[in-house]
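Protein of interest.
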Amino acid sequence: MSAPAASALLTMLSAERGALAGFVTLLEQEQSLLMEGAQTEQLLTLSEQKSNDAVSLNHMADARHALLQQEIPRPDAETIQNWLGTHCADGLPIWHDIVALAQRAKQLNQVNGELIQMKLRHNQQALTVLSNAVNKAGVYGRNGKPDFSPGSGRSLGSG
């Protein structure tokens, strides 16, 4: 790899590491909000940022892959590590950080997904309880108006 290409690779790896660190921070914030029972609006804002960051990270990984593919036929994590150790040693610690941050992001995302599923189950159970209570009461119709049918029970004033 030429010196300019190696420099470009180091720049790419550093940018990817920074973006991944920011993404991990975002996932940690999401987890805190989920555990605190934050309002939906806060989670929606964070979710939008998370989606944008994920797209950005995918573009960075694609660019890295394209550059490394010129040197490595199938650039996977292990072959990249071996290649960096031999051809671009300055990139090796950055690569180790990228791999560790990606693993952390994966773990956080999995836990956050489980927290979201728990909240969904809780909300579904609450809706079921409320629906059953409304159906049993039979006081109001679906249109929100009183649903008293004449002759269906005792009249007012009867003892």
